[in-house]
Amino acid sequence: MPDVPTRTPLPAADLADLFSAPDPPPFALVRRHPHDQSASAPFDVYIGTMHTVRRVTDLPSGPPRPGGGPHALAVLPYRCLAERGLDCRDDGTPLRVLRIRRWHTADTATLTAALAAVRPAGELRWEEAGFDDTDEEYAGRVRDLLSHEVARTGLHVLIRRDFTARLPGHGAAAVGELFRRLCAAEHGAHWTFAVHTGGPRGAALAGASPQRHVGVERGRVVMHPMCGTLRLPPGGLPAPEDLAAFLRDRKETEELGAVVDAELAMLCGVTAGNVRLEGPGLRPLARVLHTECRISGTAALDVRHTLAGTLFAATAVGRPFAEACRVIARREPSGRGYYGGLIALLGHDAAGGEQVDTAVLIRTFELSGRGTLKLSVGATVGPRSVPADEAAETRAKASALLSVFESTAATTPGDTAAGRRRADPGPGDPAPHDAPEECDTPAAARGDGAPGGRTPGHRRTGPRSTVPVDPAAWPSVSAALDRRRALLSAHWRGRSRSAPGGPVLLVDAGGEETAALAAMLRGLGRAAEVCSADRVAHAAGVRPGNPVAPDAPVRSADFPVPEVRVRPRDAVTRATGVRSGDHGVHGTGTRCAGPTAHGGAHRSMDPLAPGTTVVVGPGPGDPFATGDDRIAALRALVAGLVSRGTRTVGVGLGFHLLLAHLGLAGSVRPRGEAAAQQEIDVLGRRATVGYGGAYAVLAGPHTDAQARRLGLTLWYGPGDGELAALRGPRTGGCAFLPASVLSVEGAELLTLLLE
Description:
Distance between the termini: 69 Å
Number of strands: 30
Structural class: alpha+beta
Radius of gyration: 27 Å
Largest sheet: 14 strands, mixed
């Protein structure tokens, strides 16, 4: 058939010819977010030529089609993270692009008729199926991670395991049948899809992903961070009181906030401002219900650089994002393939503007040309994880997706012929949603990368309704969602007022939050530029090769010279896991492949210009660490700025370094949680703020006296003796993160610090 550049119906006979061809062309079947959650919703069929490219920024741009439409579909493997300078195993998984030559539409009836015409090739049958490790082995990996990494830093990281099988008769018809079953099993997915690379032994991907990651539409970049999962009872929707209790859970609020923060940092690095937060809302699926938010901003880059700058969803990696990448690279036994990557549809709208839509590659089968089937599933390991529960979670996820094989499995999963140890789905595993009412479900079952999974304490069972129900409309659930929304940043929800002032130079100290902090400053009406620490040090006359010693006294025109000296902590409290060689001085917090938007630009503004305030931003690491060149250089920078009388404000790590230089820091301790929301008295008001970072700085026995000598006001909280903020002549700072979505009054407090 000739190329069809516009969307046209595809007859069942032509679809059957595609499935039965001895040398089929590359094709993709894609059903995107049907709003009515109908199994019979139409889907698109894309047929074209398959190519590989080296980098995300090499994806084709394609000329606009009359009336708009897609020109390419790409599958981005996890190894593309290397383009952002982040750690990952390079397993050689190709970045594939389907250049679309023909675009059709079909529905379930057409698909069913086409598959019936080519059976038995369309039937599904697996052999030698099972996990590559036992539940006990996976739980042991989790236990080791908890004791060696999570306990020190409060890290959350998604660790995967693989379910593999051999799939005889794995041609194009089997891919179509797999797509049909996924559509029937999961009505609420953002994307249900199958991609075949073409040829008699083409590779394939097929999945039902619940999550959109990034999109560009009508000149705005849109992201949908998802976190928090409530497992639905076997017989129907949860009781309203169960769902309302889930939404009131503080842990759920904090974990969703942390994921939104991670993706807000990416968003601010590729947008030109006007950033807005909506939600949280609910995404009901066949077996679980997720909470998700929507964040958006004015597009500043083309779609390829937007994709490159937002690799990948924090829900499939962890947070802090860069550290989670390092842990995954060290602790997972092999590369991730496509797991955690993206499937992306690139094209133009009717006006010729670029657009892209994506889905996170979770809950996705990878099928090789040799007939090997792999399903990767993961559990997010955090400070509150229980190893056995995390193993049960991965088993539940695998069981949910593998239910598409239940009616046709030719063999009971067991040990492979090669003798590999398998932890296989058994009688005690979670049953599909149409199981009898007496079937039990595990207590810990969450979505991929969506920590905080819960099962209702009591269930309402009965026939599952076929009529779409919106739980958000229930009065108690609606009220709980409103309370959750009120606990998120007023600024990002568009409810803060402009507060213009002098220019701000923001020093990138390696924190992922730097781009969001810059965007907040600009949104408040400030002229703000981001600059690397070494450039600011050069402009201020601080020699990186001769850093100020940790116990050097404070010298400033506004501060008397104190006799107090700060002693570095011993090796027990030194920085953990942060290698200065990984980042240089300025880290990776605002890097973006290719051209950068405002949030990611590094410039050379004069820190000594009249009226300029220098903000030393957040970042990883122990402020008392010795032997860390990065921390030493930042301390030297803070000392140089204060000694010159430059108005200096610290946020997060920058605040801790300022405390140390002023002689106000007594000791440092691990925080134990990567993110938390607290209500504290600070800067003359009661405020709800979000914390990040792995360390808290505590006051010493002479801190208050020293603050009085320097004319500074200190605020404490939330922990006993923990320093939260300071304000005084030519200086100020806070331990919490004003730009975090968990800081409700963050913009207001930031304005007070800059006054």
